[in-house]
Specification:
Layout lengths: L10 E7 L5 E4 L5 E4 L9 E7 L2 E6 L4 E2 L1 E2 L5 E2 L9 E6 L3 E6 L4 E4 L7 E4 L8 E5 L5 H5 L7 E5 L4 E5 L10 E5 L4 H4 L4 E3 L5 E3 L5 E5 L2 E5 L17 E5 L2 E5 L10 H4 L10 E5 L40 E5 L11 E5 L3
Antiparallel strand pairs: 1-4, 1-13, 2-3, 4-5, 5-6, 5-9, 7-8, 9-10, 10-13, 11-12, 14-25, 15-16, 17-18, 19-20, 21-22, 22-23, 23-24
Amino acid sequence: MSATRPVILNGIYSIRAESVDTYLTADSTGIVTAESWNNEESQQWNITSAGDGDYQLHSVVARQILRVNDEGQLVVIAADSLPTWTLEPRGSKAFVIGKAYDTLAVQLPGDGPVIVKDRNASTVQRWVIVPYVTRVVKQISGFPIEQYFEIRARGTNNVLLTYGTSVEDGAQIQLWARPTDKTTLRSAAFFIDRNGVLVHAASGHNVDVVDNVLVIRARRPFYNEANPWSHAPPRFSYRNSQIQIAFNDNPALPSTSEKIYPNDSWQNTRFVLARDSSVRPTLSLHPASDFTTWAPKVLFTPFAHYGTTINKDWGLVPEAQTGTTVDARTTWDLIALNT
């Protein structure tokens, strides 16, 4: 009886060689090697479904897709193509990671960069794909765990808050003066869940990006193929006082995608959350038809669009990060709300 292909859910994984205790590791030059465990982003891989049993593998540290160079080595560097991979079960826990529509598979080298060779039955082509668990969520995200917190613009008394303190699906998250009453302050509370997802506490909704503004989105059933109705939320991380954003899927809906993220720039650009940005916040009035292909009619409710009139003084956008200088407009403080 042939092995049933396990479902690999969209998420962050480490990829360990079955034969030796080494992990796929992206170095600073974009070359992928096999190294001992280091519990760093260089060994974190974002695996997302590309449909029809294929997957894309992105390096978390490089924010680039896994591909093969002309020398047959694994690399994570920018290029026009978007290669996909198959994850073929071997034994009880291992996979062969193969190039989709090709005979090549990822192989542990004797030394140097990880390579691809023709598929074979050897152990050097078997990899164990291990999801990150709660105990390392803090290392992944940089946000505090086991507590609620507000996100305050550094040097100000302004915090992230839903428009009109709304808890409706699709309500925009904006920058407002910190509330003084406890009821309103609940809409400024966030937390990191056990999967490392940034959550708006008062609504229980994920923090998401639609077009290029922050919103809260209700959780949906898992779909094998990401779509505007149900998809993995962006990966938010807190580094150097910045909130970094890496997208698992295109945040712009079809009618606005090319205008906001030309040439699929959402895939391989480093974004940080910015205020007072020269980038205009844009949240289009999306019709129900943008969602109803996937949304069950009995459960579908129109997208709220609360806060679609956007002023740059309180609008927030993912801004492409250029260079290494940290702009004050992109710095934030996390203030515990447990007391």
